[in-house]
Predict the 3D structure of the following.
Amino acid sequence: MAKNYRYCPYCAADLVEIYRFDQIRPVCPACGFVQFQDPKVAVIALVIYEERVLLVRRGVEPAKGRWALPGGYMDADEMPAAALQREIAEEVGLTIQLDALIAIYPMTNGEGQPIGIVLAYAASPTGLSTIITVGDDVAEAGWFGPTEIPDDLAFESTTTLIGVWRERLSSTKNSDPRRHIKRHEVD
């Protein structure tokens, strides 16, 4: 959970805890500012190319050293599609096309408390190259077939989506595995 401010970010007065909008919140008695605990929003991509999925080995906490689907946090001025395209370009140097929003997962902190949501998209690489270059907060990256998935996956969302992808791939050998997990089309 994000920490409460001690001082008003607008007028620097000491904040007081007052019951507002159905719960106790930090409020500025001088200017009326109310601090809301806004959730974190992250985006991840199940990027598929020729029956292989893109995974990154995390170079930072949480889950440093473990494998995950690429993605990251949205910035305040971004929409999910733009944030995910930016994150993939920063992490592995690829441009992607988002095919569909496929799931929304809870994001929790180390104590299991909810702190936000993770929006998961199906995606495919665009452009002429699927060569990945490691950058940003990634230690390593690679394309993995369904039987090559590392054991040390980082997050529930990654484990679940990889499991669904493997299951659908094995049951639909002659079709596009992304077609079977689409839920909501993306602009």
